Each structure stands twice: as structure tokens, then as C-alpha cells.
Amino acid sequence: MDIASLLGFIIGIGIIMAAILVGGDVMMFVDVPSLLIVFGGTFGVSLMRIPLSDFLRSFGVLAKAFLNKRDDPNALIEEGVRLSDIARKNGLLALEGETITNVFLKKGISLCVDGHDPAFVKRMLEQEISQMVARNEVGQDMWKGVGDLAPAMGMIGTLVGLVQMLANMSDPAAIGPAMAVALLTTLYGAMVANCFALPMVDKLAKVLLYEKTNRELILETISGIQEGMNPKVLEALLNSYISDKKRKAED
After folding, report:
1. Using CB atoms within 10 A of its CB, is residue 143 exposed (0-12), middle (13-18) or buried (19+)?
2. Which 8-state DSSP code applies to residue 69?
3. Could you tell me if residue 81 is inside a domain?
4. Structure confidence by residue, pLDDT tens digits, 81-95
5. Which among 106, 127, 125, 105 has a CA at the least distance from the CA of 117?
6. Are 35 and 22 found together in one domain?
7. Which of 49, 100, 171, 230 gets the highest tally of CB atoms within 10 A of its CB?
């Protein structure tokens, strides 16, 4: 669970809700037509932009902003050096019974144990990294589109409400509901974009960068093991994937 994402979302929405509650009845800010225009319109138009499969998959990508499990790169380096030491002393087949926690690293080691050519192993793992990046970028693009479309739908709702209001100026009872649609759609659109969609896009970009860096570190580990690289040299090479600050702290 990513506490920062959950806590930030709760604080952001909570402050807005607190301001609403202090000012009066919260039901004044609930309007079904406005909700339908913003949410229905935004997701409907988003569905026009991308295939249905990518649209549905983007919700799974979104979950990574809250449920991403980050592997510590220091732990990956430590495990990689340990495996390298075993392989150098006893051969690649000695890695077959080793317990490996990271799925991507486990797959790479399995390919090594099966005796595949280093070039093939590298190409296969690089392809998997590329596919992972592509899937996540499709999800990011979907939610960036939601962030762009929600305020636009809010503006459309505002125009709808204004037209309804101007068309019923002779009926004072109709002016209030029409004005509510006009104002609340703008509010809903701004909240969807700025309190949820756009921050999630930024968080997903950070999660993708972190995961991509870890996988590239693992790819380097696999290459080093197959080349029979000295574990100490491999450790120094892998440490280049960690920031200077973290390396100094580790030292």
C-alpha cells in the first residue's frame, strides 16, 4: 500500500469537504445531472479515444498508484551479488534450487539455468521491460485524458445549465436548479482533474520509473552472472543504479 497516495487523496478531499460542511448543508453540492455530465461524459469520451481492452486495463494500472510494491534496490543488489557468487563457484546449475523473491529476477535466473544464450536472455528480458513500460504508458495516457476532459465536461455542463436558466427566466423556481447544474459541473470537473486524475498520472510516472530502473538493474545482474563477472565488480556496477546519497548511506 502506498501511504502517500492514500493519505494525499484523503487530505485533499477532506479539506474540500470540511470547507463545504463549514459553509452549510453538504447536499447543496450534490447534483445528479452534474455528476452524469462530468463522470459519464468524461469516461464516455475517454472510451472513444482508446480500445475497450486498454480502457479496462487502465483501471488496473491506476491501482499501482495505491498498491505498488516497491523492491528495495539495495536488497536486489545484495541478492544478485549472492547469486553471482554461487554461480561463479559452483556453476549456473547451482542456482536452480535457490530461493529468489523477485519474480523478474527469478525468471532471468531460470533462463540462465536452462542454458539459453546470453544474447537471447537479454533480448527476452528487454522485451518484457518494453512491454511493461508500454502497458503502463497506455494507462497513464488514459488518466491524463481524464484529467484533460473532466474540466471540459464541467464547462459543457455549465453551458447546459446557463441555457436552461436563460430559457426559464420567467419561472423563478427553475432558475435555481439550472444554476446549480451550471456551477456544480465546473466544480466536479475541476475536482476530478486536480484532486485525482492528474496527481495519479504523476504518481504512476514515478512508479513506472522506479520499476523500470529496478528491472534494468536485474537485467544487468543476469548479464553479469552469465558472463561470470567477479561478484565485487558486479556489486560496484549495480551500485551505479542507486543515487549517491543512498550509496553513501549504504556504505
Report:
1. buried
2. -
3. no
4. 999 999 999 999 999
5. 125
6. no
7. 100
Q: How many domains does the chain have?
A: 2
Please tell me the pTM assigned to this model: 0.83
Specify whether 192 is located in the same domain as 239: yes
pLDDT tens digits for 202-219? 999 999 999 999 999 999
- Judge whether 79 lies within some domain: no
Residue numbers of the domain that contains 47: 31-73+119-250
* pLDDT of res. 245: 65
The 10 Å Cβ neighbour count of residue 31 is: 22
- Residue 66 and residue 5 share a domain: no
44 and 8: one domain?
no
Distance CA 58, CA 63 (A): 9
Reported for 78-86, long-range contacts at CB under 8 A and 24+ positions apart, including other chains, are: 79/105, 80/105, 80/217, 80/218, 80/221, 80/224, 80/225, 80/234, 80/238, 81/231, 81/234, 81/235, 81/238, 83/109, 83/221, 83/225, 84/221, 84/224, 84/225, 84/229, 84/231, 84/234, 85/231
Same domain, 242 and 138: yes
Neighbours of 92 (CB within 10 A): 18
**Residue keyed to cell 486498454:** 54
∠ CA(13), CA(209), CA(207), 5° rounding?
Answer: 30
